[in-house]
Amino acid sequence: MVRLSDYTKEYEQVVSNFSLFPDQKGYAIDPSTLFSTYSQDEDKAMCVVLYEERPCGAVLVQATAPKEYQLLSLML
Known about the structure:
Layout: E1 17-19, E2 26-28, E3 36-37, E4 44-51, E5 54-65, E6 68-75
Antiparallel strand pairs: 1-6, 2-4, 3-4, 4-5, 5-6
């Protein structure tokens, strides 16, 4: 599992499926509370990345299973 708060440039090759579970430092907002969705594809969605409860970026994810998403891009 790749925690979004641990994702850095040195792990660019580690683009894999991950579960979005809140941890004590960084997590992505649950897709049910997305601030933006992509109408062209309901399985793709934009999530805000939070670090210590402050927004620090966003990710584009694609649903692969309930509560599991493939990371498509990361914007910090």
